[in-house]
Fold this protein.
Amino acid sequence: METIPFHRPFIGKEEEEAALRVLRSGWLTTGKEALAFEEEFRTFLSIKDCSFSKNESRENGDSTQSNLFCLAVNSGTSGLHLALEALGIGTGDAVLLPSYTFTATAEVVRYLGAEAVFIDIAEDSYNIDPQSLERTITELSKTAGNKHKAIIAVHIGGLPCDMTAINSIAAQYGLAVVEDAAHAFPVRTSESQWAGCCSDVGVFSFYATKTITTGEGGMIVTGRKEIANRMSIMRSHGIDRPAWNRYTDTNASWYYEVVAPGYKYNLPDLLAAVGRVQLGRATELLSMRQKIAERYDKAFVDQPALIISAPGGARHLYTVRLRDAEKRDTFIESLRKEGIGTSVHFIPLHIMPYYRDRYNLKPEDFPHSYQRYKETVSLPIWPGMTDAQIDRVIEAVKKAICHIIFS
């Protein structure tokens, strides 16, 4: 019996040829491929769809695409770290973020010596609850010495957060907003803007499981030039000039200066070349995911034991929820025996040992996050799944439901 993995990357001949082109070029690290990837990503995210670009264009009196800055990095995690550092987050600051997310969202806060302040998700969503967010900010405002400076909004599974509400709260309290858009490319918010383009800084991931992939990698987008400049320098050791310029321009000086203690976060050309191909077929890859989700929706809508995913978004994940959360692990084991790979997105951070112990947290402190975790399973949804593979997943899910109902 064939095992159907939870994920398999969709890589074809064009990606292979792009990688070989770089391998044969004599230049493997960050160079012309990464620069082209940034420019093509910038073109994809039209000025008309980026609220931060609109804000800056009003100030500058123009509406050209030059107000949008895209910076390729070696991971989405790196991008989040650079974003917070450029926004001035440091020791003793408080950054508000959902407990229901991957650890990268919170760990970058700790890299900078700041404190993660967890927020519950909404009862009817996997995303951060704006009402809980505002209540927590109000409470923090009464605590002497606790400086809250930023919000990280995470678009879980590729379904956008309520950015109108989040941005309104941020403006009221003078907070920066960073979008963790690791799951959210390419998808628009309800305001017809691109997710990742509705804040001070947005960060996308190109990890192997994402809607487009470079294996490892990410892209930062912002409309704030000073923030972009800071991140550009800090992603390459804090050096004021890129290696591509110093080593390939015969008229360029060898001299450079270290202006800050930066990081090693640049994206190599080898990965950028693959990303350029993937970007070119982003709409196609999204369509493939949507068709799989539609098949699942149709098959599971009448299953009383399940609550299916909300429609729309980037379809990075396809989650189902067991109405009887006590049966979740049995359901996963039944699928495993049928050769179906699954995962759970996510184990809330407030029950992870490090954060639980540091902040003295209990599972019930964030009840919606904890309940959602206990009942959720993610099913395979990746471009390239055959009709036969999709049918097998559907059959296995229905069999697992029967097993947990009648066991």
User: Anything to note?
Assistant: The first strand starts at residue 69 and ends at 73.
